Amino acid sequence: MNSTRKLWAGLAVLLIASFAALLWVGSEIHRQAPPMPERVVATDGTVVYTRQDIETGRQVWQSIGGQQLGSIWGHGGYVAPDWGADWLHREAEAILDLWATREHGVDGYKALDGATQAAYTHRVQALLRPNTWNAATGTITVDPDRAMAIRTVAGHYQLLFGNDPSTAALREAYAMRNNTVPDAEHRRQLTAFYWWAAWSSVTERPGSDITYTANWPHDELVGNTPPSNLFIWTVFSVLFLIAGIGLLGWHYAVSHGEEMVPVLPKSDPLAAIKVTPSMRATAKYFWVVMALFLVQILLGAITAHYQVEGQEAYGFALADILPYSLTRTWHTQLSVLWIATAWLGMGLYIGPAISGHEPRFQRLGVNVLWTCLLIIVIGAFTGQWLAVMQKLGLDKNFWFGHQGWEYVDLGRFWQWFLFIGLLLWLTLVGRALWPAMRTGTESRSIVGLLFLSVVAIGVFYAAGLMWGEHTHLSMVEYWRWWVVHLWVEGFFEVFAVAVIAFLFTRLGLLQTRTATIAVLFATIVFMAGGVLGTLHHLYFTGTPTAVIALGASFSALEVVPLAYVGFEAYHNYRLGKATPWMERYRWPIMFFLAVSFWNLVGAGLFGFLINPPLALYYMQGLNLTPTHGHTALFGVYGMLGIGLMLFCLRGLKPDVVWSERLLKTSFWSLNIGLAGMAAFTLLPLGILQLIAAIDHGYWYARSAEFMQQPIVDLLVWMRVPADTLFSVGALALAWFVFRLWVAPKREAPVPSATAVAAAAAIVPKH
Question: Which residues contact 482 (CB under 8 A, 6 or more apart)?
Fold first, then answer.
């Protein structure tokens, strides 16, 4: 068996084993998820909440933006609090205040002496932590004092989500519009869902002293401190990382040879590719990419500004038209949509380019898919606006409004529409690639891997269809991260690696056999950590200990290949200077270099900063998460999308002079702006929140008291120069694309040898 076959076999075994383990974990999550009670009753027989209250409350929460307005179990927005953590602390304090007033005649427990406070703390933990779930009757029983505290906290939330003047300042601090939930009964039911999320966070699993969410969030008042297994698996994750880097270093030392071909082409081989009608039709995809990118930046600026003014933009009551939860929804969704559109356009362009085959009606299919993408964006965003403004109704929200799950907020109808669109894309690209798959040429493995990644991209979005409107929250989180992590970060990565390898081999700069082995090996390394690394998102979402063990071990391996991106960067840079005609591809390759840098910094450094269990216990949902998110999502996948787009544009407009000034401005402005955004705002703010979470508890790090400090306002304002520079880079790129079609400057034709000789013959001799 040759090296290529061994790598294919290894990849197949790895994927089968990894997905088998991932599916087993899913079955365990389903079996051990926090129970959903039929009733919550006090010991005196009073019904506090019903299952219908909790289920409807979750629907209300989803309709107002869900994870885009605050967070649940740490996943979501960062301006409003984590509602479960906030409720839990308020409920504990309400019980303590009740006892202090009744037993000591003081206004609250903080007026008591230290010894009494300590005794009360132990007492409230003994009240909150025991599991009173009765599976036979489907009931959770609470003490009458706790029931009274629940009513107190629920009253606060009902005022907050309404329009009461007493909570107006807090609504502004949380960037909530007035009357977020206009219906009083819906506000009451919303509190039931928040209570259940808090109950899951403080209630110990049967036979254990660890809660359903592994003692998350950190709050010493209720006894939530990191369990010992977080320490153990954090140590193991570091050991796995060191071992993985060592093994990969050994592999490079013994097998990494010279990749460039001995004789380089004298002219650009890609220039000989005939641009077919369907390839030419992909141009409109890249126009949409730029439009969505610019709108995403505008919405990002509005979303960031809400953290300063809360409900307004420079005095204008913007929240009445575009609430924070809506601008953040569109901002996060557009980040995925424009990047995915760039990659989809690249796939449609590269298929016929690889095979030299233009299937029948291919151009029609490309145009139909483009139209579908526009309909999905416009339709889904309209539905989300109607949902957040509470104009759609709960009965229609799940299908046509706002699902409330960060990055997969589309209504189910629009999800199905997108899935069908992806299957159409898979068909279009697959049938264009198929002739190249059948030829048996040396590059067949690269084309095969590209084809399989196209299949995976088309099919694996179906994970987003695996939950229903009332599926358990833990299971929704499990499937949601299949989409966000596996679909976006996994299979798109394999697609990109295969495309880049094809481009460099077709350019004649890499030997096909060497590139094939390198691509297969890189895919194995990425997927070894990438599949089970999905679990690091699920440590504290009502999941069993096995999730922490597997997630810690394999998410550490995700960082391993990123430790050697310097090799990739160096080789790409060297290839970009290999021949004079490669100057035509300077800026696509520069964006690939940026991908290497942000892979190391954004995905590697900032990713491993938050991924170990003990680190994430304190950091989940703090601004260290968007530090990783911005630098990895845009720095890696956004830059890669731009680089791939530029390769396509070079083929679509081969005779147009590219503006070096515009591309240089775009490249450096985007990269410096992204770095400034992380260095001057997200990272320092996240560190301040981390200190607060360790010293005072997670609830405090997310509270209005902390987030409205002058230093936080200053850090948010410090984003302005970096954001402005980033916007300049985007505008320069958009103007560059615009000028390729509008009044472009053509390259001067190169005179043929015959024409030169004829011209020389008529020059008069002196």
Answer: 460, 463, 464, 466, 534
Residue that terminates a domain, selected from 632, 655, 678: 655
- Domain interval for residue 352: 230-655
**What backbone torsions phi and psi does residue 219 show, to the nearest 5 degrees?**
-160, 100
Compute and round to an integer the Cα radius of gyration of the chain: 28
Low-confidence ranges of the chain (pLDDT < 70): 1, 251-264, 440-443, 488-489, 509-510, 559-578, 748-766
Query: 54 with 131, same domain?
Result: yes
677 found inside a domain: no
Query: What domain count does the chain have?
Result: 2
Helix (H) or strand (E) segment spanning residue 71: strand 71-72
Q: Do 315 and 433 sit in the same domain of this protein?
A: yes
Q: What residues pair up with 162 in beta bridges, in sequence order?
A: none
Residue 523 CA to residue 7 CA, distance in Å, equals: 10
Residues 392, 370 share a domain? yes
How many whole angstroms separate alpha carbon 154 and alpha carbon 229?
Answer: 34
Rounded to 10°, the helix 586-598/565-576 angle is 170
- The verdict on 204 and 134 lying in the same domain is yes
- Output the pLDDT for position 749: 60
> What pLDDT is stored for residue 273 in this prediction?
82
Q: What is residue 487's predicted lDDT score, i.e. its pLDDT? A: 78
3 state DSSP class of 687: helix
Q: Are 537 and 25 in contact (CB under 8 A)?
A: no
- pTM exceeds 0.85, yes or no: yes
